[in-house]
Design goal:
single chain, alpha/beta, five-stranded mixed sheet, globular
């Protein structure tokens, strides 16, 4: 039976009359503002950002659980979590992330993890992340081969700082102002795909599975990239 059209956002009057992709993320601003660049007249995807600091992977998946219970979610809809690996893949935090990923598999949620952070995805719109760039971030000699331990050691602020340089200015609370073109989105998807050497839910460092979310939106004609 076709889905009955209904208001989704009373402030805009937007309605949904097709399947929808829902994206729950740990960030308050960056992810929501990034996907707002692809906004259409009709609601086909919706971002659930973090509010009041509840940004842990557990809080993100709980937010998606609540949305699924409260809204008319059908078999054709897709529910995603978009989170950072960051410190959640280290020490005692690993247990919580593993449980969240188990819940996602159980509930049929798709997962787009960035390692260590979403800034890796944003940076790929401007440059290829290779040993030369990583050496620049690390302050190493440019002809050095970057070891796995060096890759793992680069924290989010290193990628944020380089993004600030190559983009002409970056503020994670105002991602909407990044000068990103359609061609650069396509390039970022290809670069992320080539960079992705992880075999499980978590890509290698640095890496991001955000491209899989973009692939989904493109495949379902929710965004146009040409």
């Amino acid at each position: 039976m076709p889905r009955k059209s209904r208001p989704l956002d009373r402030t805009t009057g937007l309605v949904r009359d097709s399947s929808i992709v829902v994206i729950a993320c740990e960030d308050t601003h960056a992810v929501k503002q990034y996907f707002a660049k692809f906004r259409t007249r009709r609601v086909q995807f919706k971002v659930l950002p973090t509010e009041e600091g509840y940004s842990s992977p557990k809080a993100v998946v709980e937010r998606l659980n609540r949305y699924r219970m409260e809204e008319q979610i059908g078999d054709e809809d897709e529910l995603w979590i978009c989170i950072d690996a960051d410190h959640w893949i280290r020490g005692s935090h690993q247990r919580e992330l593993a449980e969240v990923l188990r819940q996602c598999r159980s509930n049929g949620y798709c997962v787009a993890i960035s390692n260590p952070c979403f800034e890796v995805w944003l940076l790929l719109h401007f440059v290829t992340i290779d040993d030369e760039l990583l050496n620049t971030i690390l302050g190493n000699a440019q002809n050095s081969t970057v070891s796995e331990s060096d890759r793992q050691s680069i924290r989010c602020d290193g990628f944020e700082e380089h993004l600030r340089i190559v983009s002409g200015g970056y503020n994670k609370t105002n991602v909407g102002r990044l000068p990103i073109t359609t061609l650069e989105v396509i390039q970022a998807m290809q670069r992320a795909r080539e960079l992705d050497n992880g075999t499980g839910d978590i890509p290698g460092a640095p890496g991001t599975r955000a491209y899989k979310l973009l692939d989904t939106l493109k495949r379902r004609d929710f965004i146009v990239l040409e």
